[in-house]
Amino acid sequence: MEHSALDRLLAPGGITSMYQPIYLVSDGAPELYGFECLSRGPRGTNFESPDVLFDYVRLKRQEIVIDRACIAAALRNLPHLDDGVQISINVHASTLGRDPSFTEFLANTCRDTRVAPSHVTVEIVEHAPPWDNEAFQRALASLRQIGASIALDDVGLGQSNFKMLLDASPEFLKLDRYFVDGCSNDPKRRAVISSIEELARRFGARVIAEGVETEADLATVRGIGVSLVQGFLFSKPLTAVELTVH
After folding, report:
1. What is the 3-state secondary structure (H, E, C) of 52-94?
2. Labelling 97: which of 57, 139, 190, 230 has CA 20 to 30 A away?
3. Cα→Cα distances 8→48, 72, 180, 211, Å
4. Chain centroid, CA 52 distance in Å
5. In this structure, is the dihedral angle defined by the CA atoms of residues 186, 163, 34 and 27, taken in order, positive or negative?
6. Has residue 161 got a pLDDT over 90?
7. What single DSSP character describes residue 147?
8. CA distances from 110 to 62, 80, 87, 88 (A)
């Protein structure tokens, strides 16, 4: 049963790629900055839920093979985009620590799909140890060497702690929706967002606010200084077909 579930995920069409726009909101109208690539399992199964899908993947310690499958599907199905549009792909920290040829895989996939590595941000998810920290550091260095940037997901939650910030020294900090949702009416949430924005500046990084769903929350994060946002206020995750006409 376990092998059949994994085989189904790895079969053609087993992974569905979705793309959620990220917008730059500084002065004037919002501008498209990039897309985060998201993955879903086979339609009509429990694995269609990303939480179920990746809980299963981590339980079975299959992060490497599924991360590769998700990235290959996302880049292969990605329509041609204007120059300068950034693409964010999700990768487990354990994959970076355990897959010594991941950077080679990514470079080859980018070449085959005509996506410039300099337009790719590797977003580190599920940072829980254990992983080989030396191998993890080598992976980050090699990713930067081919031109990719690094983002840290879920900053402020779980294992996305100060140690991980120091270890990864990311170019982007992804602010979880938990802190964004309702921040316009919550001074404590605003305090957390302000502290992360200040921390990002000191690291030479930029904050991306996830889960922006209301104009009030958008105005609040903009007022704090966050200029990169994503969420249902702007767009739900899109299929490749929807992205083509978006």
Report:
1. HHHHHHHHCCCHHHHHHHHHHHHHHHCCCCCCCCEEEEEEEHH
2. 230
3. 12, 16, 36, 31
4. 17
5. positive
6. no
7. T
8. 22, 13, 11, 13
- With 0-12 CB in 10 A as exposed, 13-18 as middle and 19+ as buried, what is 61? exposed
Residue whose token pair is 């809980």: 55
39 torsion bin: left (phi>0), alpha (psi -120 to 50), beta (else): beta
Is the pTM higher than 0.70?
A: yes
Secondary structure percentages of the chain, helix, strand, coil, to 5: 50, 20, 30
pLDDT digits over 182-195, tens only? 999 999 999 999 99
* Topology classification of domain 2-241: TIM Barrel (3.20.20)
| 3-class secondary-structure state, position 26 | coil
Angle between helices 63-77 and 2-10 (to 10 degrees): 20
Dist. CA 88–CA 161, nearest whole Å: 21
Q: How many angstroms separate the CA atoms of 212 and 219, rounded?
A: 10
Contact, 37 vs 21, CB < 8 A? no
Residue 167's φ and ψ, nearest 5 degrees, are -65, -40
With the C-alpha atoms ordered 222, 198, 139, 69, is the resulting torsion angle positive or negative? negative
| Mean of pLDDT over the chain | 91
Query: Tell me, what's the pLDDT at 206?
Result: 97
